[in-house]
Amino acid sequence: MKVKTILVSQPEPKIENSPYSRLIEKEKVKVDFRPFIHVEGVEAKNVRQQKIDLNNFTAIILTSRNSVDHFFRIAEEMRFKVPDTMKYFCQSEAVAYYLQKYVVYRKRKIYVGKRTFNELVPLIKKYKDEKFLLPSSDTLKVTVPQALDELNVDWKRGIFYKTVISDLSDLRNVYYDVLVFFSPSGIESLLKNFPDFEQNDTRIAVFGNSTVNAATEAGLRIDIKAPTPETPSMTMALQKYITSVNK
């Protein structure tokens, strides 16, 4: 069956001429974007209940833009003035670049990993005497605390925000040829919103092993998978599939 409509379970990219724009133009398909999950901040009083005193930390580990936003939000709510001496360990360049929203970049001690948390670990290891705070969501990859524990550093996790399932009830009678997922939470949201969901001819596209596992456990048929050596991005995987079925 040909593909004419695609629903991506993420916010629409803000950049012009995104890979999705090129996919739409080349394959003449309709692509809609709708976050299946969203983030909500945890109140400062809940952070205090986790026995977190921001004065006790000399370094912050930032794994995402959300962690940046919610660290500084909590700091403001707690009336904590972040000292200029604070060290920032950012998982990627994108996170480090986003940090400029809150601090004067050239005047701060910022250490940047390449992309994954494991690539940030050697930088953290160099500063083992720091007291690290990891602001995170209520869902955190188990590999992150494992890696920090193995380093024997002084660190504490703080749940500063939560991943919440979005209300998708308005999509109940809307049909798409392809649904695109990037996390197990997206699969969970689909099944929570539509417990009677029947896949039928709907194609499911998934990104990452954890999403593959979640879709498989949910009994969904996976038609499109990324990343692979041949299709390292989701748009490339969609392009390849569409080309093959829309002949």
UniProtKB/TrEMBL annotation:
<dbReference type="InterPro" id="IPR003754">
    <property type="entry name" value="4pyrrol_synth_uPrphyn_synth"/>
</dbReference>
<protein>
    <submittedName>
        <fullName>Uroporphyrinogen-III synthase</fullName>
    </submittedName>
</protein>
<feature type="domain" description="Tetrapyrrole biosynthesis uroporphyrinogen III synthase">
    <location>
        <begin position="19"/>
        <end position="235"/>
    </location>
</feature>
<dbReference type="Pfam" id="PF02602">
    <property type="entry name" value="HEM4"/>
</dbReference>
<dbReference type="InterPro" id="IPR036108">
    <property type="entry name" value="4pyrrol_syn_uPrphyn_synt_sf"/>
</dbReference>
<dbReference type="GO" id="GO:0006780">
    <property type="term" value="P:uroporphyrinogen III biosynthetic process"/>
</dbReference>
<dbReference type="InterPro" id="IPR039793">
    <property type="entry name" value="UROS/Hem4"/>
</dbReference>
<dbReference type="GO" id="GO:0004852">
    <property type="term" value="F:uroporphyrinogen-III synthase activity"/>
</dbReference>
<dbReference type="GO" id="GO:0005829">
    <property type="term" value="C:cytosol"/>
</dbReference>
